[in-house]
Amino acid sequence: AHAVLDIGCGPGAAIRTAAPSVRRAVGIDRSAAMIDIARRRSRRFENAEFAVGGVEELAFPDDTFDRVWSIHSFHHWEDQTKGLAESMRVLKPGGRLLIIENDTNGAHGLSRAAADGLAERLRAMGFVDVSVSKPRRELVVDGML
What we know:
By secondary structure, the chain is α/β, with parallel strands linked by helices. The protein has four helices and seven strands. The protein has helices spanning 13-18, 32-41, 80-90, 112-125, and strands spanning 3-7, 24-29, 48-52, 65-71, 91-102, 128-133, 138-144. Helix 2 links the parallel strand 2 and strand 3 (48-52). 36% of the residues are buried.
């Protein structure tokens, strides 16, 4: 049973989707208002938890999560390099990082070139099986530790 972390969880929709099939589902967001909404909407899930915070300083021990993802929030990260390092730190060996963004010219999302560049950054950090895909209108960059 997995433990998952959603960075920039907003009102918690992805956590509510994941909660029935994982051991622990954690969402963080910089917005206290979003975290309040997420907590309220997710009360029925005992394994869902939420905290106000940014990706640059994750308040979790090393090797905590099997999956870390960021859906439509990577472009908001204040320090992407530090955020990627923190995401890697809290991932267990064999864990997977997923970054999902709208396919844009870079405004409020990622361009294909930026997604390819992000994939290269992940490879340089030590991620393996790194890929960029476009299942719908979104770009998905993922890699495994």
